[in-house]
Every structure is written in structure tokens, then in C-alpha cells.
């Protein structure tokens, strides 16, 4: 087995074990801190809480490293299709280990956190990452898509606030909601047109043809699946954000009216 393959398999396995251990460790850590409100949650909520904490840790890890590679990995920047993927493979392997770990957690706790869209999301990602790790192609594209994980901490934080019964109009909740909407839009929606424009720009070129029809199909189909889901989630997030803004305006108008009567 080549050293490169050993590195990939080792990183995937290490990532998988680390995130599995973290999932189980979180329960013990939060249980010992009564003031955080974790112990008042139901067993079902605790499972989802643990899953979301792990998701946030993964997102911060691969998102920040991915951002660094996006700007400074000269090999993949110079050749997005065939550039040396050594550093990107570490990030993709870490993400793959997490996706496998999270898939198992979802399947074993299906009645609590089961979601068919997450299954589709994880499987589409794993299939696409397989070709990056196995053949060493599309490293820059894969890392670019991985930057979408930068929005997950804000999505998870919204759920934490909701479970801990923070008021919807509380300052931290509103700020997180705005950040969630903005970051989600930037890394998951604005990122869509440049990706397909790049596909159009390289279509028919010799490096593109060398990828082969299987890689072409997996690349485009997985991106379409993920983009459709991201657009659906963006619509849902936007509706929620607009609803909160509307309610805040109504509350301010009501307060102004009451103050006017008092005067």
C-alpha cells in the first residue's frame, strides 16, 4: 500500500474514532456542569445536543483549515482539476471520517435525529470525496465545497438557544440568527454560480476530458444534489429570519404606541 493511501486511511479512521469518542464524552462533560441546563433535557434532546456539538467541532476544524487551503494552497489553486491534493486530502479525510461517524449516529438513533436529507447530504459528500481521495482529482473544488461547513456552527447554535428556551428576541439569539443567515448565504448560495461557471470554462479542455465520464457525472450530480438542498434550507432560514424581524418590528410598534398613550 502506498504511503499516500496509508495516510488517507489513517486520517479517515482517526477522524472517525475521534468524533465517536467526542460524541460519548460530551454527555459526561455537560452532565458535570449543572448550570448549563444540559441535565434538564430529555434523553432524546441530549442525543441531538451531543450530535450538534460534534458537528460544530467538525465544522470549525475543517472549515478554518479549508479556508486556509482556499487562499494559500498554491498547488490546487494553480490547477483546480489536477493540482497536488496532499494537504486537501488531510481535510477531506477528516471530513469523511466525520460523515461516516455521523451517519452511524443518525442510523443508531433514527427515531430521535433521523433525517433523510442528512442521509442524502452525507452520502453525496462521501461519494464525491472518494474520488478526491482515491484518484487525487478536483481537490480545489472539493475543498471549496467544504467551506459550506462554516455555516454549521451558527445553525447549531440556533438550536441550542431554542432548546435552552432563550427568548427569540434576545440579543444573542437575534445576532446569531442574522449571522447564520448571512454566512449560510455566502458559503452555500453565493458559492454556487462560480462553481458552475468554472465547469463551463473548463468543459471540453484536455484536463477536463482526462477526468473521465464517471468523475464528470459524480462531480456534477453530487453538486446539484447538495445545491438543491442548500437552496431549500436557505429558503427556510430566510423565512424564519423574516418572521423574527417582522415580530420585532411589531413589538417595537406596540411599545411606541403604549409610550405615546402614556405621554
Describe this structure in words.
The chain is mostly helical and 263 residues long. Helices cover 83% and strands 0% of the residues. The protein has twelve helices and no strands. Helix 1 packs across helix 2, helix 1 packs across helix 4 and helix 4 packs antiparallel against helix 6. The longest helix is centred in the last third of the chain and has 50 residues. It is globular. The protein starts with a helix and ends with a helix. The model has no long low-confidence stretch (mean pLDDT 90).
Topology summary:
Elements: H1 3-31, H2 43-72, H3 74-78, H4 86-108, H5 110-113, H6 116-135, H7 139-146, H8 152-163, H9 171-190, H10 192-202, H11 206-211, H12 213-262
Helix pairs in contact: 1-2, 1-4, 2-4, 2-7, 2-8, 4-6, 4-7, 6-12, 8-9, 9-12
Amount of helix: over 70%
Q: How far apart are the termini?
A: 82 Å
Helices and strands, in N-to-C order? Answer: HHHHHHHHHHHH
Radius of gyration: 21 Å
Count, helices: 12
Overall average pLDDT: 90
Low-confidence stretches: none
Quantity of strands, as a count: 0
The rough form would be described as globular
Report the sheet with the most strands, covering strand number, pairing sense and barrel closure. none
Quaternary structure type: single chain
* Secondary-structure-derived class: mainly alpha
Measured by DSSP, the beta-strand proportion falls in under 5%
